[in-house]
Amino acid sequence: MLEVRDLTTHYGSSQALFGVNLRVEPGQVVTLLGRNGMGKTTTINSIMGIVPATGGSVTFEGQELLGQRSFRTANLGLGLVPEGRQIFPNLSLRENLVATASNHLNLPDPWTVDRVFALFPELETRLTSMGNLLSGGEQQMLAIGRALMTNPKLLILDEATEGLAPLVRRKIWDALAEIGKQGLAILVVDKNLHDLMRIADRHFIIQRGQAVWDGTSAELEADEAARERYLGL
Fold it and tell me: What is the per-residue pLDDT for 232?
């Protein structure tokens, strides 16, 4: 579904990515791992076209994404939950959900407001609350729901549970596991390795902007040296 090959990205004269490789098959849950500052967010933003890549290839269902405007990439079926959530503070929870809702791909069972509330019941009680009055956990649930309302084929989450309380993190992981069971492919960046290994099919690790390791959860569990070297765990 998604294949990233030898991706390079610069910020001005400074190179941030030096050849990142990863792939996501249909229906898979895949993680992008690495310590802070290693290029995970830059990789996500380069895939989405938010930061222009300077080399390599990113294809989605066989279509090249590099050089595409980010909104065109999104319309192909990539839904982004960005780092920091970035919900609209002066719109209500419901308005946040419907503001960018679409079904460009004419999926047969599209996401609706009611379906999002079934996934995150906590949101239904805050229907008319402004975005800036929601808790951090509610904002993250809303950001995920907003991305799902675009009816993507691939859901991308950057720092899925950063700064959230343990109980809220558990709700997020349970929701992602449920979404994965429904067949939606997921690419997720996060630091909670234990939870990621519970739901993920495959992991990719980058260090200093380079792809250095990939494998299954079982392989990562068995490779203590890789976890210590690249993740500091």
Answer: 84
Q: Could you give the CA distance from residue 195 to residue 174 in angstroms, rounded to a whole number? A: 9
Write out the two tokens for 42.
Answer: 């830059």
The amino acid present at 147, given as its one-letter code, is A
Range of the domain at 133: 2-231
> What is the model's pLDDT at position 233?
54
Instruction: Measure the CA–CA gap between 135 and 86, rounded to whole angstroms.
Output: 13
Residue owning tokens 């080399």: 55
Q: Which of 149, 188, 154, 152 is nearest to 172 (CA)?
A: 188
What Å distances lie between residue 212 and 27, 42, 99, 172, 227, CA to CA? 24, 16, 39, 28, 12
Mean pLDDT of residues grouped by 10 in the chain (233 residues)? 96 93 95 93 95 95 92 93 92 94 88 95 93 94 96 94 91 93 94 91 94 94 93 77
d(CA 49, CA 224): 35
CA distance 119 to 113: 10
Closest CA to 69 of 90, 57, 51: 51
* Assessment of whether the complete model's pTM goes beyond 0.85: yes
Domain count, the chain: 1
CATH of the domain at 145: 3.40.50.300
Count Cα neighbours of 140 within 13 Å in the Cβ-side half-sphere.
Answer: 21
Q: Sheet of 154-158: strands edge to edge?
A: 78-81, 154-158, 185-189, 29-33, 202-207, 210-215
The answer to whether 98 and 148 are in contact (CB under 8 A) is no
